[in-house]
Each structure stands twice: as C-alpha cells, then as structure tokens.
C-alpha cells in the first residue's frame, strides 16, 4: 500500500512540473496574450532587426501597445520593413522614435517607442521616420577588438 501512495505522489509531482513548464513556455513565447482589440498598422524601416520575430511586442514606457505584424525585406533600399499593429487605444505623435531593444535573461527582442512632441498623430499606414536598429553584440565586440588592436599597434 505504501508503494502505491509513493508512486501516486511522484506522478502528481511530474504532472504539475510538466504543466508549469508548459505555462512558462507559453508565457515566453507570447502566446495567450491574444486579446482581440482594434488595431491600426504603421511601418518602420530598420538597417538591422537582429532577432526580431513576428508577434514580438511593441512597448512604450513598458506598456504593451501593439505587436509586430509582418517583416519583409526591401530590395531597393536594402532595409527591413516592419509592419506594426498598434492598439487603437494608443495614439503616438508622428515624430515617435522606434528602437529595437532586448530585455530579460532570455533576451526577448521587442520594439520600444519613445513618443515625440509633434501635434499630429500617426495615422493608419504611416511610416515611422525615426528608427534605431538592433545592437549586434558580435559587431560591437569586433569594433572593440579592432579599436584595441590599432591602439596597441600605434603605441609601438
């Protein structure tokens, strides 16, 4: 009888652990946030989007204001064109800045908005003019190493 009770508790523990992992996976993946709200689309162009993915959050002051709806490549300007679906409850000035940022231990990539001071707001299908591309760690390390290498060569 004691062995059956022990096996039952181990089974319950394994099921609870599996459900906890499933919940965490859904939260990290951004699933379950899909509330059906009215949205309007705006575009932003970036030189480098890093690890930005579809459905990535768009945040302003830490508040979720939209999601990435589409990502495509412009063959003429050699830029990434990102379509953002913004919640209609939130209106942003035309001179808003969009930056690709990273947060958290897992490195969630999202788009951050810094509102400008223009009196006119972004309208559906507008393009955000002021953008800041993703910071690529490998490029920064290469620049640091190259800069340090040239400094030591100049000293000799």
Describe this structure in words.
The protein is α/β, with parallel strands linked by helices. The chain contains two helices and eight strands, in the order αββββββββα. The protein has two domains: 1-32; 39-142, no CATH class. The chain is 30% helix and 33% strand. A hairpin with a 4-residue loop joins strand 3 (63-74) and strand 4.
Structural descriptors:
156 residues, alpha/beta, 2 domains, 2 helices, 30% helix
List the helices and strands and how they pair.
Layout: H1 2-29, E1 39-46, E2 57-60, E3 63-74, E4 79-87, E5 97-103, E6 108-114, E7 127-128, E8 130-132, H2 137-155
Parallel strand pairs: 1-7, 2-6, 5-8
Antiparallel strand pairs: 1-4, 2-3, 3-4, 5-6
Number of helices: 2
Task: Identify low-pLDDT runs.
Answer: none
Please identify the structural class as seen in this structure. alpha/beta
> Percent helix among the residues?
25-40%
How many β-strand stretches?
8
Placed side by side, the strands forming the largest sheet appear as: 7-1-4-3-2-6-5-8
Backbone CA Rg: 22 Å
* Approximate shape: extended
How many discrete structural domains? 2
Could you provide a short overview of the structure?
This protein has about 160 residues and is an alpha/beta fold. Helix content is about 30%, strand content about 35%.
